[in-house]
Amino acid sequence: MLASPAALRSHGLLGMNRRNVAYISRYNERRLYPLVDDKKLTKERAMLHGVATPTLRDVIDTQHGVRDLGECLGDLERFAIKPSRGAGGKGIMVIQERDGEQFLKASGQALTLGSLQRHCSNILAGLHSLAGAPDSVIIEDLIEADPYFESLSVEGVPDIRVIIFRGIPVMAMLRLSTHASDGKANLHQGAIGVGLDLASGRCIHAVQHSRRVHSHPDTGVDLNRIAIPDWQNLLTLAARCHDLTGLGYLGADIVVDRNRGPLMLELNARPGLAIQIANGKGLLPRLQWIEAQEDIPDSAEARAGMAMAEFGEKIRT
Amino acid sequence: MRHQPLFFLAVSALIIIGVSMMWLRHDRLGIPLLPENNTPVWLVEARIDFVALGDETLASLSLPDDPPGYRIISEQAASPGYGFSRVTESTGHRGEWSKREATGPQTLYYKVQFAPGRNGAPRASGNTEAPSEPQRIIWEEPQATAAADLLETAQRRSSTPASLTRELIKAVQSPNDQNAALLLDQHSPQQLVVRLLNQSGVPARLAMGLKLEDARRNQRLQPLVDVYFEDSWHLYDLERGGQQGITPNTLVWHRTSGPVLDVMGGQNSQVRFSMMRQSIPALDLAQSQTSADQPLGYISLYQLPIEEQGMLKLLLLLPLGALVVAFMRIVIGIRTSGTFMPVLIALAFIQTTLLPGLTAFLTIVGLGLLLRGYLSRLNLLLVARIAAMIVLVVLLTGLLSVFGHEMGINLGMTITFFPMIIIAWTIERMSVIWEEQGAREVAIQGGGSLIVAIAAYGLMQLATVRHLTFNFPEVHLIILALILLVGQYTGYKLSELYRFRSMVERD
């Protein structure tokens, strides 16, 4: 069954070609890409602009540095190993726990130090980076999920993807991993996407594998009752992400830490379109409204306020 | 879209220029717009290379003389500074190039055009020329015993020279015959049959034939066995087993007892052949252009040596493949692994034909993925792992060739057309996708690549398409315009109509 192009257009759905031509290539300057494609750089800029991110523990730049991985880690219990310039969430390894010599992944799979080292050396050789360019490894603290978020999913920390256009948050979704998605938050791997009301942070619609769902298949949580605490702060953090990169069309992944509140996990200059399925709404009307605005306020708070006023659910059912 | 008017102006300019140039060339030069069903004409180019020693030089090449099944339409020798003459000796026609003084590498060309001669049997001349006495054959031990043995067995089973020839060919080709195996150590099968025939008193000699295939370069002559009985010479192609005659696409080039190529005053001489199919109007054109300087002639590809024309024929198909990839990815939304890998696969398919190519490709990638599984346990650095993968892919190719040959499938040669390094990278990418995103993603991207490759192949192998891209190079301006247009497409992809279907279904 195919949808007719006219029907999609009437829903204001943004297609990939249009996103690439009309938004990404027009509003995102090529020279700014490294700021989001290289997580090391993103973190440096984030610190400059007062955007909180997970604590960086270590950076490995050379193959011989991999040998000292054991010392680097020390007795760090919970951490994530990431390629600095990984593409599409590739190559991220999350260690939840240590059991003697063994490192346990979120799924419970046990790994040796040797396989962590192999992973690092693959990252350095550029296996996960765009075009296979040499890369560096970053090791950062694992997020201590806020108890509210912890109750929502089984493995991995739920994160919130916000699309930001010209500094104004446009659409948001909460991504819940499932057993089917192996703790990963990618919708096409079976994670749940929960569309969020920009005014309140409440759930308006939720999907798994593009089909509407009302409860989490693993935990049974009623998805319709989800409401993100401290929503305004989170949206302000998202709006600030525009300032640290200068990119016009941007995706920010935000998590809420138990101790530190909302943290920016990573940025994406080519954010995907699945957020529209999660929200049951197209991006185009909102993007076009923003394109028509002459003055965009300088302060992130004001821009977040604009989004809450303009893009909130006006009719509650 | 600020540059929209300019953009459309440029695109329409490209299309208008392309179409009008095509029309002009069609109208003024009479190049047909569609490939015609005329009898194809083969243009064969012999290229002689040698290193001259600094003295008087004379190169003499045996020329085809009334080859069975073909007739010569025209011939031409091109070689700067050399005098050329066509001489007819008792041993047949030869072309002779001579120069008073020559040093260093020399290249001589001889071009000849053949049309399939449907009208009747090959003429008698040359074919009935009675042979001198059969050659005297001297063997050394232990070959002498083996030869005598082999001959005796064959003679026992035969009554006439024709049946003797058949039996000898069978014996030489039989894999279990130890006598034959011993003798084949030092002689090619064709040589061996000729020697044995002469030994038994039947005059025989080696003839040389050329397998005609479109756009081939660097080909050598293939030996054929020529036997004299019943007052004329008879050809045997060992590829056909003991059956008399030659395959229809074989052009008999050399059918006398002398050498094919004889160079005096030079060394390291060799002769190589390039060939190409043409339709007759194109041929007329090629001839008229060499003399007259037509206004549109300067963009013609016909003046190039055939060797380069053959290469260009393939190269000129690439833009079309690129267009197919752009269309499939942007408008249809098929995901492929490696953006333009499908074009390279399609190009390989053109050389191998689809089914054998597809089999070979799937086998290699499948086996490669298995091996990659073991490699990943070795903890290698990425570059080393891919280097190792390349070695394994090459080895696999060799192995499959041997295996295919044993089983009588000519798979081996076809695999060598695939770009090895691309295959190694494909395997690596696929296996990473497999580890991280599961087999389903591998199937989607691998299948997508193959679908795009097959679509590109389907288009590229059409006779009309090949005709247009080669005879009307300006067609590429139109292709370029189409690619630019596809690049501006901002509508939904076909795959998105499926992906977002749930959003519409709700109402």
UniProtKB/TrEMBL annotation, chain A:
GO MF term set: ATP binding; metal ion binding; ribosomal S6-glutamic acid ligase activity
Keywords assigned: ATP-binding, Ligase, Manganese, Nucleotide-binding
SUPFAM superfamilies for the chain: Glutathione synthetase ATP-binding domain-like
InterPro entries noted in UniProt: ATP-grasp, RimK-rel_E_lig, RimK-rel_E_lig_ATP-grasp
Record GO cellular component, one term: cytoplasm
ATP-grasp domain span: 43-301
Superkingdom in the source lineage: Bacteria
A Gene Ontology biological process term: SOS response
Name of this chain's protein: Alpha-L-glutamate ligase-like protein
Automatic annotation (TrEMBL), chain B:
Membrane-spanning ranges: 6-24, 314-334, 340-370, 382-403, 409-427, 448-469, 475-492
Keywords annotated in UniProt: Membrane, Transmembrane, Transmembrane helix
Domain 7 transmembrane helices usually fused to an inactive transglutaminase, chain residue ranges per copy: 259-503
Domain Inactive transglutaminase fused to 7 transmembrane helices: 25-186
InterPro entries cross-referenced by the UniProt entry: 7TM_transglut (IPR025840), Transglut_i_TM (IPR025838)
Protein name: Gonadoliberin III
Species this protein is from: Halovibrio salipaludis
